[in-house]
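quick one before i forget lol
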Amino acid sequence: MSAYEDLMRFEHDTQALAQIAGRLGWDQETVMPRGASDQRGEEMAAIESVLHARRIDPRVGDWLGQIDDGALDTVAQAQMRHIRRSHARTMKIPADLAATLAKVTSKAQGQWAQARADEDVAAFLPVLEEVVALKRQEGQALADGGDVYDAMVDDYEPDMGAADLAEMFDAMRPRLVALRASVLAAEAPKALSGHFASDKQMALAAKLACVFGYDMTRGRVDKAVHPFSSGSGQDVRITTRTNELDPFNCFYSTIHEVGHGCYEQNIDEAYLLTPLGGGVSMGVHESQSRIYENQLGRSRAFTGWLFGQMRETFGDFGLDSAEAFYHAVNRVNDGYIRTEADEVQYNLHIMLRFDLERALMQGDLLVGDLEAAWNDRFKADFGFDVDKPSNGCLQDVHWSVGLFGYFPTYSLGNVYAGCLHQALRKAVPDLDDQLARGETGGATAWLRENVQQHGGLFRPAEVIERASGMTPGAAPLMDYLEAKFGDIYGL
């Protein structure tokens, strides 16, 4: 056991340093002065060099060679599964490439934010070209002659390949397209309109975070250009954003990120600063954020309670009943922005990005042609033209920071959430009564017990199968969407 104990002590410090790196990223997105981006890039590169050196430290290989996994208990075996996988992947990536990627993506993030603000795609493309070239190098190193994009997906969703995702998306697309067409052909419910002060939005957002179980003693809510969650264990931070014409943007971004944050806060404390101490995959992570946001937060029961909160906060805002409010929350709108998309169209946004980034990584699409390719695909999928870059290929931060292979996990998370929601309804039969009182404890306790507390103990698909009692598949999600929106739109 000495080798295992030595390895885990070493891993503890590596995990702690990785948390520090994550905190630098949070700071960059929230409060860092704009002029500090170049220096922050140097800082991120320096800490990435330290992390990479630790991950390829010869002692790690020696310890791994001495450990008999079969002699370990279940938790220790899971720790070893993660460490062996991470070590094998890291050993394939040259240290100078890891440091350069950290430096360039930090710089690219700042340039993306400025280009987005200026509606200037051309200003962003040169650094994006650098990022894509570096990520291809990384992918080639990881793939060992296999599919580069598969290697990237594996970073975020182990055991899931691009072909598996493409097959799932191809099966979902016809039902999504048919549902979208039927909904848009029907009479739309009244939309929310008016002016909603940002400070009041943030106050209600903080209340919603607490309602869904987010622990403010170990977390905080801030504003950022692009909402996100970071950290784990005892320091988990989320961000949201406000639009004074659309408070739903703030409220549902907050609930979404709270789903991520609660997953991290609720992992068994025994796993703190170990490989099991974070969400097991981005697909499972997204299942938590999406079920919090949609199946719970956009349900008829919960929106009935939220309607009362809105009236208390903003007074009369033009919708005269909880039912009208429920319809407005779930109104299907033509729109450009993925994070603001309704449940019917959200996955179509992901499929667009999945196909484009896969083509970029395989060399079938040049960075210089990305904007035109995006606009053409958007017109084909959604039926209208992109009006400006911030509503098109500059809307998401992911590519600037090198997160290729991340986007498909959003739709995979929706699929997982569909399976979990079906099981949750059976396990908590009075769920709607609870939600109508603004009480989410029955749902969040079930998710904590069946998904969140386990952290990285089980493999991603195993987490969902154990919790839901079924092999993960898209049918429960599609059945839920067709039933919900068929009811709202009278289909």
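fyi The chain has 20 helices and three strands.
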